[in-house]
Every structure is written in C-alpha cells, then in structure tokens.
Here is the input.
Amino acid sequence: MFEVIIKNGYIYDGSGKPGFKGDIAIQNGKIVEIGSITGSARRIINAEGLAVSPGFIDPHTHYDAQFTWDPLATPSCWHGITTVIIGNCGFTIAPCRPRNRELIMRTLEKVEGMSLEAMQEGIRWNFETIPEYLNALEKQGVGLNVVALMGHSTIRQYVMGPEASEREATPTELEAMKQIVREAMEAGAFGIGSSTATTHIGGDGKPVSSRLASEQEFLELGRVIGSYKRGIIEVTPALYSPLDPWARLARESGRPVTWAVLLQQNAQPDYHRQMLEETEAFFNQGLEVYPQVSCRPLVMSFSMEDPYVFEGLPCWQQVFKAPPEKRPDVLRDPAFRAAFRHDTTTFPSRIFAGDWETVQVQKVTQTRHQSLVGRNLVEIGQELGKHPSDVLFDLSLEEDLKMEFFVRLMNNKEDDVAELLIHPYTLIAASDAGAHLTLFCDAGYCSYFLGHWIREKRIMPLEEGIRKLTSVPARIYGIKDRGRIEVGKAADLVIFDPDTIHTDPAELVRDLPGGGERLISKSRGIYYSFVNGVPLLENGKLTPSLNAHPTGSSLPGKVLRSNLYAPDE
Here is the structure.
C-alpha cells in the first residue's frame, strides 16, 4: 500500500516534454511509480483536470533570518515553491560572533529592507558558524527545502572585523576565509553569494564588505568551491558593470556563476540585449554565466524615511552623513536638489531613471493631501509649476517625510521582458522573498509567471514554463534529486489549475515578531503542494496541522546538503 496516489492528473515532468495523463505514487518521501497505478493507498487525491508538476524552486530569497522564527517561509510556501535558496548577495546571519549580531541585523535592515525590531525579537541565535547554523535549522525544522549559500560579506566581517568594509584582505585573512569556505562546503553549503553593487550600504553606513574584495579574493574563494566539483557562485554586481570578471570567475572555479539581476531598463533600452549577447558569447566558450531575470515589473513603495530607490546616487551621501534631525535641511537645500536632478538623469548606475510619470503618491498622513493619492508627480508638478523632484521633496517635508510613494522602476516594457524570459541561458528568479518587506512582494512570481506569461501572453508552452521553474534551477544549483517527476526523485510536487493560477495583489499585514508590518501575496489556482511526500498545501491552504507553527520532525522540509550529492564529473 502506497502512502499517497495522485490520480488522473496531467503530468508535466519538468523536462519540457508535453504533459501526459497519469497517476503518481508516493512512498517514504519519494516518487515510486508513475503511469496507470492500480494499487491502493492510504490517501488518494483526484487531480482530474489539473496539472501536476515538480515543486517550484526559488533561486533568490533572503529567508536566512526569517527561517529562525517562520519555518514555513511565508508567503513563498503558498505559491507552490518547495525549495528556496538563501544566502544571496552575501548577506547571511552566519558566521557571526555575538558581539557582531547587531551590525548584521542593521545591515539586513539597511540593504534588504528587513525589520530590525522583528529580527531583534525573532532571530534565535543558537549558532555562530555556518555548520552550526545549518544544524540549528535542521534541528528546528523547516517547512520548505533549504539550499544555503555562504555569505561573502558575512565571512569577511567575521575574519576582518570593522576593517572588512574599508580595505582588501591580507594573505593571512584570505587564508582564514578559505578555511571557512572549506568547512561550509564540507557541511553541505551549495556555494557562495556576494555583491559588488554600489547600492549596497551596510548598517554602519559603509559599503558592504564584499565590495572591498579584490578580484584575486573572488578567484581564490571560487577555486576552493571548484575543488569540490559542486556548488555555485552568486553575485549581485553594480548596475551596468561589465560581466568579464564573472566569466573569469566561472573559468577559474570551473563552477556556474549566476548574477542578479538583469531587467529591462528605461535608462538604457538596449542594455538587456547587450547582456544577452555577452552571455551567449560566454556559453560559446564553455562558461556558465547565468543572468537572473524577473517576470515581474520592479515596483516599489518608498518614503523619504526609507528612500531605497535613491540611496545609490552620489548626491545621497549628503543625506547619509547628516544626522536624522538634519535630513530635512539637506532635502531643502537647492544645491542638493540640483545634484539630485543631475544624478537621476546621468549617473550610470542609477536604479531610477528620472521617469517621474512612473512615481505616484500612494499614502498620505494629512487630509489636505488626500486628493493627490494615485496621481503621478508630473501631473502634480504641472499644476504647481514645479519640477517633479521638487514636488517629491516639498510634499515629503510637509508630511515629516512620512508620505509614501509608488514607483515602477524597471521591467515595464513587456515585449522586452519576454525576450529575457524565453532566452535559453537566463534563470527566472529575483523574487527577493524575505527582503524589502514593505517595498514590494514578489514571492509569488511562479504563480504570476504561469498565469500572466504562460496562460495570458503565451510566450512559451506550459511544459516549457514549468521546466524553467523546476529542472532548470535544480540543474544549475546541483539539486540532483529534485526538479523532475521521475521514479526515485523526491516527491516535491504541485497540483494546480493552469486556467486559473495567478498571484493576488500584495496586501499589508502585521504578522512579524513584535507586530511589525510586511507585504504578502496569496495564490490562486494552486490546490496542493507536497514537500518530500508530505502535503504542505491542501485545497489551496496550509495543511491544518501546520498552522500551529510546529517545529522539528513534523515539518516536511529538509536542509539540503550538497555533500550528500555525487560531485560533478
């Protein structure tokens, strides 16, 4: 007798081949039979009229901290995602000495938009090293499978202390970092995440420490990872920076390199095509350098209290250096405003390209401004006879910097975005799930991709769309027992309706530790998900036994270990 039989579903096995009608039997967390199954089971699920696919794999999340208080990794678990990769961009919470915990949390607050109060209350610091962190997650239990990357910045800080954000490493310090990488790889880490992005400023107001690493440091750490013949290197480079260093890293390490994120840019309309051409040239040389792309428009909410979209501009250093009580004086300064207008139209690495018609008033604190909600700054500026940037600052100052705005930054032109999604060497990712909690919520990108891009836009067949979300990331990251529906593979499965699957609009909730707020989104059209053969979603909702936030063995996820897979040949 099998534990579960899923009957009469239309099976898309993750290979990209057309689907077929059949049954799937599950036993001991594995797929044990596929086809027309006549045996009995303790539970039979009728999937008539529904698609059955491998569980979705999200390559770019920031659940490192959240997993310690939310083992289900909401809201990703509501969208058919069964495996998440953490440690992206090099921002992790291990290795970390007790005296550095506050700086680590303040960096996550600054760079990844996480709630400092939630982390202070929610993180369970029962670890210091990377192996101890993995063991702690394993002992606590996780609802989804976890693939952990090491954090480059966190490792540098652990070895070098405060000087990590000020200089390159000495040979002795680099040797200590390499030893940490070895220990983490032997404990089952899947590689390393890093960042050279100019927008990434730490909790101490300095560049995150990986930005101070020399290319030699990247290459030496990459060679250590490559010596294990497994693992991947993830990096978030500065916008518009060359890709050549990452191609050299792929060549020297012998491992895949993936970088985040390649988006359609209003500031440089042909940028994404140039990057795709470079990517093809690398693959022609045998170098695996995968751009991570997003299927969602990059939209953000912000205020002058948390102006993430502008923090990478050179002029914004004046704001960083000013005490909080002096920030309004900087925003009033005509010289600062002139520099701001210059930077938003000419600075090469800007996120915002000066498209003021894409910036709308979202939330106000004063009744007299209520009529402005939903209107863009160009319209308001024309009425007031002001430049839109002056409207931004003047309105913000009138509301003590609390007025909130909504901006569409990138990925606005769908024909261009489609080029990114269908390209054979791109990795659909960049959800940033677990981060930027009040700015946007793209954790449901898989539901959105299958609903908007596959059903509505028909940019590729459903079987190819599923392959992009399952076996493609599994192969690139070396998760060899997942991403396909095959006998012997882990029973990570999703049952959904291709005619209705989508993601709901984001909504603001207060469910963080201490009552902090974040944006979440729910799914439509997903009926069941299985993680290691255990139902996580049933009839579109979390299995009732999981709503009580259980821990330990009652949770179906696993901390996956790269050292348990055979090395690549």
